[in-house]
Amino acid sequence: ISGLTTFQAGYNPAQKLSAGQAANDINAYPTTIHGGKITTYSIAANKINVDSLASIKAILGTVHAGLIYGTRIQVGGGADEDILFEDSGVRLYDIGNRSICFSKSSYAEFTVMLVASDYIRLNSSASADSCLSIL
Fold first, then answer.
1. Which residues of the chain have pLDDT under 70?
2. What is the overall mean pLDDT for the chain?
3. Strand 119-124 and strand 131-134: pairing?
4. 28: which of 53, 87, 120, 132 is 20 to 30 A away, CA to CA?
5. How far apart (Å, rounded) are the C-alpha atoms in residues 25 and 49?
6. Is pTM, for the whole model, over 0.85?
7. What is d(CA 123, CA 132) in angstroms, rounded to the nearest whole number?
8. How far apart are CA 132 and CA 135, in angstroms?
């Protein structure tokens, strides 16, 4: 420090960190971030490792998970509005006209059509005569 500097009583600049010591301390010890000090877009990370996340709303690309629990899972909003069970190859998708198709590669498929509030129709691709209506 050069020039005329007046310090508060009890302040001793010689007892402060030496150059580079703050960075060494941060790298050597855990860092705690108080949530009230985090601002929007201030954290960028390739990975976040946590035991649980609560009250999260995010735009996510691909999600890999063991189990996902929820009261409702909404699928859709894009061109491919279907559910694929990858290991078994079973696929469920909306084909319009109040109908849902269930299919599996190399097997017949069937559709469930909601005809009226008390009437559904089941159709299968196995044969032209394989239509069942339930009242």
1. 1-3, 31, 55, 76-81, 127-135
2. 76
3. antiparallel
4. 53
5. 22
6. no
7. 6
8. 10
